Amino acid sequence: MTDRLTGKKILVTGAASGIGRQVATRFVAEGARVAFADRDQPGAATAAQAALEAAGAGAEALAIDMDITDEQSVTAAYAAVADRGWTLDVVVANAGVQLFGRDAKAADLDLDVWKATVDVNLTGTFLTVKHAVRGFVEHGGGSLILTGSPTGLNGEGQDFTAYSTTKAGIHGMARTVAAAYAGQGVRANVVVPGYTETPLVTTISGDPSSRAAIVSRTPLGRPGRPEDVEGIMVYLASDESSFATGAIFRVDGGMTSL
Ligand SMILES: NC(=O)c1ccc[n+]([C@@H]2O[C@H](COP(=O)([O-])OP(=O)(O)OC[C@H]3O[C@@H](n4cnc5c(N)ncnc54)[C@H](O)[C@@H]3O)[C@@H](O)[C@H]2O)c1
């Protein structure tokens, strides 16, 4: 590790599991002080503790209870970080859901499934972004990183109308925020992981034919791992990316090049 994030204070949503946990753990190893935020409080606590133990003396991490669909929970989470004396430099709006088995092509999609997906992925990301930007503007700027998806860019999500639509919305949200707040030192970018084996996608990873099919649509020929997106997240969290905003960074094994 290179201490590329020494001095940075960072909050990551969805940090109890998968990509969020991996990225938050890497941020700790790079010298940042990191809030592991999740609605899964025991999971966030376990992840933060493991990151502290792995990084060793001097590392700082804390677990924060945060349900991104609930504005009071979101403001309380940011307040808890502020109470710790941390002024956030970076927020990773990463928490999300994909309702496998219920999300569907448009004509077959139940309204409840649509609303449940929008509630977390779009409204929850909006609330995370809204209150992050308020803090950033107050303190002279910051870097927002949103986790997008290939399904928001091409036909990869044709069987998942709700999920794909919310991810396209997240891509648009980043552009809007980037343009609106560039003059106040706020940057907003999207990271697009490809098919990445986490608890989110066990419906695919646990089914050999589904897994082979999605890997066949990944030119680099293998599933993604959460660690595949660490590097781009460190770059976007660091000052090395100070001229990057409103952009989409794809780390998808080439999936969206097809
Ligand atoms: N795994 C993939 O193939 C893949 C590909 C592209 C994009 N993504 C995106 O990456 C992000 C992380 O996914 P993952 O694969 O690590 O999934 P994951 O299920 O392993 O982790 C998601 C985390 O988000 C948390 N979460 C869900 N709803 C929440 C809420 N309302 N408030 C707070 N936390 C909440 C969960 O508790 C969980 O810890 C998601 O936005 C997902 O859409 C995943």
UniProtKB/TrEMBL annotation:
One of its GO terms (molecular function) is oxidoreductase activity. It holds the Pfam family adh_short_C2. CDD domains: SDR_c. InterPro entries: NAD(P)-bd_dom_sf (IPR036291), Sc_DH/Rdtase_CS (IPR020904), SDR_fam (IPR002347). The keyword Ribonucleoprotein does not apply. Gene3D superfamilies: NAD(P)-binding Rossmann-like Domain. Keywords: Oxidoreductase. Belongs to the short-chain dehydrogenases/reductases (SDR) family. This is NAD(P)-dependent dehydrogenase (Short-subunit alcohol dehydrogenase family). It comes from Frondihabitans australicus.
